Amino acid sequence: MVSENSSLDKKGRSVVLKWIPFIARPFLIVFNLIFVFFGIGLLMAGVISMTHLRSYVRTLGPDLSVVPVLFAALGCVVILVSVMGVLGGITMNSFVLACYSGLMLVLIFGELALGFVTMKEQQSVENETKIRVMKAMAFYNFQQASKITVDAIQKWLKCCGIVDYRDWITVLGKSEVPASCCVTPGNCQRMYNLTDSNKPPFGVRTNGCRTALNTWMRNNMGKVTFVVLLLCGLQILGVVLGVLLVCSTKMKWMSEEKDLK
């Protein structure tokens, strides 16, 4: 009876040792290769923001200059952890796999904490962004960087002014709007009559950037939350695969040691 149980136990171990690496190993390698490219994307986004979009970031506030650095740093961490996962999957080294699983857990908790803080401080972020856009508008005629940034925001959000197009009277000192307020460039009435300012000029966007910015943030917050949760879910899968491979490696080592005895 004992020998029969021992035989069944040995058979069960052999099945586990065979199928866990067979299933988990390729999944772990492919999964982490995908995350390597994701990390490269984050790193490139950070570097591009630090170089090509430097004037935009500085105009909207010095605090935002940290964001590209964070993107680049997060990209480097993701690449490092993912490469470790690929190497662990290829070599089946239990130490590398254990380090990978631990670092991935730390990364998951960091992402969840960042997502929670962002959602909690959403209103503060919206208010701060509005203030910075207003400051950029105030320097529209005096700083080229402010002019470029405000024009880019108005084209991107398809808006004009903070509340509406009439905000530009105080900025430009005349009843005129920038070309970035036009629905179709070159086909709009940029100057209008002050006595009839309630009637929107032809071809000029009537919605303000404050409303457009609020709408954009609220529309995209759900998408950002979904992406963060999806990434965390995939990373948890990576941790599970890593732990399974560590366990199977240890079981194989113990089985071989037991067979030698």
UniProtKB/TrEMBL annotation:
- Cysteine-cysteine disulfides: 160-181
Q: Where in the cell is it found?
A: Membrane
Tell me the PANTHER family matching this sequence.
Answer: TETRASPANIN
- Database matches in Pfam families: Tetraspanin
**What CDD domains does its record include?**
tetraspanin_LEL
Its placement in the membrane is given as:
Multi-pass membrane protein
Q: Can you tell me where the transmembrane regions are?
A: 27-49, 69-88, 95-117, 224-247
Q: Which UniProt keywords apply?
A: Disulfide bond, Membrane, Transmembrane, Transmembrane helix
SUPFAM superfamilies tied to this protein: Tetraspanin (SSF48652)
Report the domain of life of the source organism: Eukaryota
Q: Which family does it belong to?
A: Belongs to the tetraspanin (TM4SF) family.
Name-wise, this protein is Tetraspanin
According to the UniProt record, one GO cellular component term is: membrane
Record's InterPro entries? Tetraspanin/Peripherin, Tetraspanin_animals, Tetraspanin_EC2_sf
